[in-house]
Amino acid sequence: MNAGLKVSARANELVTALKHAGEATADQLAASLGVTVSAVRQQLDGLAADGLVAWRPQSRGRGRPIHLYRLTRAAEPLFPKAYGGLTTELLGYVADADPDLVDDIFDRRRQRRLEGAQARLASASDDFATRVAELARILDDDGYLASWEAMPDGSFRIVEHNCAVLDVAERYGQACSSEIAFLRQALPDARIERVSHMIAGAHSCAYQIDQNP
Q1: How far apart, in whole angstroms, are the C-alpha atoms of residue 208 and residue 175?
Q2: What confidence tens digit (pLDDT) does each residue in 14-51 have?
Q3: CA–CA dist 111, 61 (Å, integer)
Q4: Domain extent listing, the chain
Q5: Can you say whether the dihedral through the CA atoms of 81, 84, 89, 90 is positive or negative?
Q6: Which of 106, 149, 174, 186 is 20 to 30 Å from 95 by CA-CA measure?
């Protein structure tokens, strides 16, 4: 499940039922789950408020239309995805064809991320700490569950509590070298060193950041 997208156990049962059904009424969902219709409606209202569920009216003759509920695209992160395994498999095929292409792929990814980061950092304050904080937010938006802190010695530290490309990084070292290269290019006026590394057994990846004098 996406670390930033969570629902309660009861709501998760409802979401799973909707995933199987594709579309369903509140009555149908209640019957499937063995709960009351009012309980289902309450859960649906909460999920709709979060943008995870949408509905459309369905006419049933002379009576009032009923609501057919469905999951939105925003709910997709609630379900397991095999992107890491697929990416690793595809990179394996690329490496078999031409090992140099793997380096090129990671370079292109780094450049694409860098262009986006530079645009955001350019609009941030000239204050170095503010730019460090913005870079942490960029990493967090990329799925790295990142945080930052000012250290007692005047330096800074960015910590990635999640590796968004762990499956790939475990096989291709270019993922990790590309990451630190991205950080160094995003903050060219800083000295950045990796001080902990998930691939080496740490529970997070952390980067020491010192502003150049």
Answers
A1: 19
A2: 988 998 888 999 999 999 999 999 999 999 999 999 99
A3: 57
A4: 9-78, 99-211
A5: positive
A6: 186
For residue 55, which of 44, 43, 39 has the smallest C-alpha distance? 44
Rounded to 10 degrees, what is the CA torsion of 87, 92, 93, 97?
Answer: 140
- Do domains 9-78 and 99-211 share one topology? The answer is no
Give the phi and the psi of residue 205 in degrees, each rounded to 5.
-105, 130
Helix (H, G, I), strand (E, B) or coil at 206: strand
pTM for the full predicted model: 0.67
Quickly tell me which residue has 């609009």 as its tokens.
123
CB atoms within 10 A of CB 158: 23
Query: Residue 145 region, left (φ>0) first, then alpha (ψ -120 to 50), else beta?
Result: left
Reduce the DSSP state of residue 107 to 3 states and report it.
Answer: helix
Identify the helix (H) or strand (E) that includes residue 104: helix 99-122
Architecture per CATH, 9-78: Orthogonal Bundle (1.10)
- Cβ atoms of 190 and 213 within 8 Å: the answer is no
Q: Which of 212, 206, 208, 207 is nearest to 190 (CA)?
A: 212
